[in-house]
Amino acid sequence: MAKQPAAVVGIGQTHHRAKREDVSMAGLCREAIDRALLDAGMTLDDIDAIVVGKAPDLFEGVMMPELFLAESLGAAGKPLLRVHTAGSVGGSTAIVASSLVQAGVHKRVLTVAYEKQSESNAMWALSVPVPFNMPVHAGAGGYFAPHVRSYIRRSGAPTHIGAIVAAKDRNNALRNPYAHLHNEGTTVESVLASQMLWDPIRYDETCPSSDGACALVIVDEDTAKASPNPAWIHGTVMRSEATSAAERDQVNPQASRDAAAALWKQAGITSPIDEIDAAEIYVPFSWFEPMWLESLGFADANGGGWRLTESGGTAMDGKIPVNCSGGVLSSNPIGASGMLRFGEAALQVRGAAGEHQVDGARKALGHAYGGGSQFFAMWVVGADKPTN
Amino acid sequence: MRDVAVVGFAQRQMEEFDGSPTCVELLVPLFEECYEQTGWTRKDVGFWCSGSSDYLAGRSFSFVQAVDAIGVIPPVNESHVEMDLAWALYEAWLKIQTGEVDTALVYAFGKSSAGVLRRTLALQLEPYTMTPLWPDTVSLAGLQARVGLDAGAWDERAMAEVVNRSLTAAEKNEYAVRKGGSSVEELLARPLYADPLRKHDCAPVTDGAAAIVLAAGDKAREVCDRPAWISGLAHYVDPMSMGTRDLTRSPSAERAAAAAGTAGVEVAELHAPFSHQELILRRELGLGDDVAINPSGGALSGNPMFSAGGIRIGEAAKKIWSGEAGRTLGHATSGPALQQNLVCVLDAEQKGA
């Protein structure tokens, strides 16, 4: 049996902020859900099932919060699933929601991913000392900085490449009214002048800690006919690899390369850089743009990534515009960040991205990763119904 | 819909696991048992999905190390739910239904003894008005039992009968952590623990893990003489608010049973962590007196968090494999007072696509 076609017909997100003290967790989710339903021209009554995603429960201090949220999310009396796959969770959640439609089980599925990080301190929630385990002190930045150093060494990248990414994404965010950071006047020079946090990662090269949510309405082919601009799902993929295998390449993980290969094959794409019109790639620290460009096959794995970034190829008007929304570097409600990437990719192919729209975008990539660069979730969406 | 069957099952249940707070060490031998049952290696598994809880493990990303137990080079197609094994099975069943894969191995783990379980579970409640009062699981179940007693929906004797039958059946279950039947009179003579509940009305705090193997069509028939075909699989959730729902009922359980189709079920494994909850579930699932309930002893004999629901499906599958029954049912619950419920109906006969 083949997969049933599925499409995104509703996308909603919150205004992401450091602290959304004006809303509860339920209110935060509803802000995104209500916008997605409005976009889809639906109400909660039209929804068959709900899939919730978020990163660790310790971030808000509630165990399995979807249970108390069930009623306010409109899930009472419906099937409710809760996905948690580390930082990739927003993407994985969208994929699980898609599979409910692709499996032919449901016709209209609502999915929401959120994080209300101001309820606790995410950096330290990630750094709980665990007996007999290597400590992850000082959060994700401290964990990933050695990977970035290794990339620089391997690829011979000039040290200002990260700053190019940060300046680009922060300026892109100025065109996105929902973005957390609206830092006017960010330049490569200003990024390079910012405080060094985890060498070589400077303050302006790191993602913020945000409160925010993203919701998608994913429907079957019949329901999608009512939408003027459905974003058809051309391929989805999830891959995971172990944390502690000594042979792991943490700079360019096999799970990432395998996932990309499987995704491009599913979506019938042979040359990503020529066939993908916009990419929303999970870049929590600036250097991950060139790293993932290589791993995903947009550039050769011998420094092609940083060369593409340096040439301006990933800017709004470049060959492969990356993170036109401002990306994770401008908004990072962790659990929602992956779904924001998936949703922003869908906005592009629906021609609904507003001021950060890439002209004529027909196919886009949504990408998320998590853990110690070991969990990957990706999808390709297109303006046209897939033929494969 | 594709025909998908349960073709492998392995479990561990114990009072106190002498090992890491995540129990992931238990997974390696469980996977080994699944490979033995199917003749597969991990490369034959198309999709992996696990269920666990960070709060139970007392740390973020507790499932991450479980992936190491798979031995993951090369990488795997894998997902995780912050839910019981039964819902991990649901996600894997979906994945098979999309046609992307033909086989899946789902697993779950949890070390309830690492903290004070009834208090940990209080963190599941509505955080703004309920959790600050720290109403623990046993007390909430006690309130539910009291509501039913006062309403005449059940009596203490019916609760004791559930316990006596469960603990008697558990004598034949090597994994049971509480076992040994008695008599209704003797059980009722024991002291109250959380009025109106006695200790034996409450599932024992249990550590453990479990794994289930799913396969579609020919793949299932290749590895299993009598595959347990999934003929119905559905789950629903109710609002949490304890003050606004009728605690003597479980609408989500009723709805899941109706969607899965429970007619003709001969054996039902119900995930009822408290004796009176079995009485609610039997009503909601429409199970008559002719249905054998919890031949494994059920959750009252062992309730490893995050795998106990899935274990019910595994136990139900074993009855199909052995030829003891033609149609069985596995049920899982989550949340306070039967808030969320899943029903899986298994058949010896393949429905045919």
Automatic annotation (TrEMBL), chain A:
Swiss-Prot/TrEMBL keywords: Transferase
InterPro entries, per the entry: Thiolase, Thiolase-like, Thiolase_C_2
Molecular functions (GO terms): acyltransferase activity, transferring groups other than amino-acyl groups
One Pfam family cited in the UniProt record for this chain: Thiolase_C_1
Keyword Oxidoreductase part of the UniProt annotation: no
UniProt keyword Transmembrane helix, yes or no: no
UniProt domain Thiolase C-terminal: residue ranges: 243-374
Superkingdom, taxonomy of origin: Bacteria
NCBIfam families recorded: PRK08313.1
Protein name: Acetyl-CoA C-acetyltransferase
Organism: Nocardioides lianchengensis
Automatic annotation (TrEMBL), chain B:
Higher taxonomy: Bacteria, Bacillati, Actinomycetota, Actinomycetes, Propionibacteriales
Name the UniProt record assigns to this protein: Acetyl-CoA acetyltransferase
Keywords for the protein's UniProt record, in alphabetical order: Transferase
Database matches in PANTHER family: ACETYL-COA C-ACETYLTRANSFERASE, NON-SPECIFIC LIPID-TRANSFER PROTEIN-LIKE 2
NCBIfam families linked: PRK07937.1
InterPro entries: Thiolase-like
GO molecular function terms attached to this record: acyltransferase activity
SUPFAM superfamilies per UniProt: Thiolase-like
